[in-house]
C-alpha cells in the first residue's frame, strides 16, 4: 500500500495514500471536532466544523473530506481555524431552540459538548429561526426538525447502511429540512423504525417515542399488575448509562433496580428466546423434511420484518412464523402466567426493556394480541429505563444483584447470544442438530457466524447432512441475500437477519455514542455470559421443558402455534 508523508502541527507523520486529513490527524493523536462525519460512510463536509489550514490553500478545508498529499503541511487549531469553528457553531445555535435543560439529550448532546469545548458564551447572530412542528406520528421515533442541524448523518445511515431512505434533505436554502418526501409523517413511510437514525443524531432532533410517563402511571396504579421483561442486549448496555465502561455485565443489578422501581415481577426475555429456538428449530426441521419454502429466515427483528413486508412481500413465505421473543413472553404472561396466578389479563401491564425502537411499533400489531389484549403493552429503550432508574434515585452500579423471577426467568447461554449478530443462528443450530440427529453436539461454538462482518456464511455438518447458512446484519446486507432468493440463486437452508448492524447490541434503543469498539465490547460480554451458563442449548432449559409438559404440549402444537406464532402482511413502499 503506497504511503504519504505530511506534517500536522509541526509533527511529521506517514499514512496510507487516500486517507483524509481527519484520519491522519486522529492517527497522530490530534483531535479535530466533527458533527457531520461518520466513520465508514461517504464524507460530505457539510458542517465545516472540522476545517483546518493547509499551507498553500486559499481557504480553510474540511478535513473529513480532504485527502492527504505528499509534503502537505496542516495546522488544526490556529486562530483562524478556531474563529471559523466558533462562528459556525454560533450560527447553528442561532437557529436552534434554546431549551437544553428540558431536552432529552441534555448532557449527551454533541452540539452542547462542542459549544462547551469552543468556550462559546454568546450568540452574536440574531434573526428569523426555522420553525417546524414535531412529528410524533410514529409509535417508535419522534422527529423534531427545529433541533436538526442538517448534518445528514441520519440520512446517510438510513440510505447507505439500512437501504431504506425514509428521510432525506428537502426544500432549499433557509427552509432546508431533513424529512420524509412530500412532508409526509413518518408513520406512513417505509421507515422500519430501527432507530439507527437516533443513534447517529448528534442532537435531540431524532429520539424514541417515549413510554416513560405511561409506565410510571401503571406502576402507581394499585389495580395494575406490572411485569417487566429484559432483552439479552440490555444487560451489557445498561451500565454505560451510569458511567460504566462498555462490556460490563449488569444483569442482577438491572433486576434489582426494576424491582425497586415497583415492578411486581421481573422476567427474562431470554426465557422466550430459548422458547423461540425450540419452535424455530422445529419449524426448520419440518420445512426441510416436507419441502416447504427454503431458505427459512429468522423473524426476531421487527425492523427487518417490516423491511421485508415493504420491499420483499413476495418472499414472506420464507419468514419463520415465530413471534419475536418478547412478544412470545408477553403472550405467555397474559395466558399461562395469568392463569397460574388468577390475574385478569386486562389488569396486567407487560413492559419490555429492549435495545430496539422497532419493538415499539411491533407492540401495535393487532395480530400479536393475546386473549383480546396486546401481548406487550409498552416498550422502554435502554435509555428510557436508565432515566427512570435515575429519577427513582437508585445507585445502579452499586446495587446488590438478584435473580429473575420465576416461572419465566430461567434461560440458557443460547438465549444470551441472541443479542449479537449470528447469535440466533448459532442458538438454532445447537438445537436443530439435536432434533435432526437425536444427539447433542460435542462443540456448540459456531465461530464462523460470529463477528461484525455484514454478511457471514458457513457450511455446517449435522450428522450426514450439510447445511448452508448465512447471517446478515444491517438491511443493506439483507438486501443482498434477499435478491439472491428472489432470483432463485440462494444456496442456503437457513438465514438469520438482524435489522441493526451488529445485531441488538447496536440497536436503536441502546446508549448513544456507540462505535465499533463499544459494540465489540458488548459482543465479548454476551459470549462470556454464554460460556458461564449451566445450560448452553435451548432445548435443555428445564423451565422450557416444564412449560411444554404443563401447558403447551409439544413444540409446534396447536396451542404453541396460537400463542407463539404469527402472520405478516404486504405493505406499500412509500
Structure description:
It is globular and about 75 Å long. The two termini are 44 Å apart. It contains 18 helices and 19 strands. Helix 15 links the parallel strand 18 and strand 19. Helices cover 34% and strands 14% of the residues. The chain folds into three domains: 75 residues, Ubiquitin-like (UB roll); 117 residues, 2-Layer Sandwich (Alpha-Beta Plaits), CATH 3.30.70.20; 352 residues, Rossmann fold. The protein has 574 residues and is of the alpha/beta class. It has a five-stranded mixed sheet with strand order 2-1-5-3-4, sandwiched between helices. Helix 8 packs across helix 10.
What attributes characterize this protein structure?
574 residues, alpha/beta, Ubiquitin-like (UB roll), Alpha-Beta Plaits, Rossmann fold, 5-stranded mixed β-sheet, 4-stranded parallel β-sheet, 19 strands, 34% helix, globular
Poorly predicted segments: none
Structure classification: alpha/beta
Distance between the termini: 44 Å
Mean pLDDT: 94
3D shape: globular
- Radius of gyration in whole Å, from Cα? 25 Å
Number of domains: 3
Characterize the largest beta sheet: strand count, sense, and whether it forms a barrel.
5 strands, mixed
Q: Helicity range of the residues?
A: 25-40%
CATH class of the largest domain: Alpha Beta
Number of strand elements:
19
CATH topology of the largest domain: Rossmann fold
Query: CATH architecture of the largest domain, please?
Result: 3-Layer(aba) Sandwich
Give me the side-by-side strand order of the main sheet. Answer: 2-1-5-3-4
User: Helix segment count?
Assistant: 18
Instruction: Assess the beta-strand content as a share of residues.
Output: 5-15%
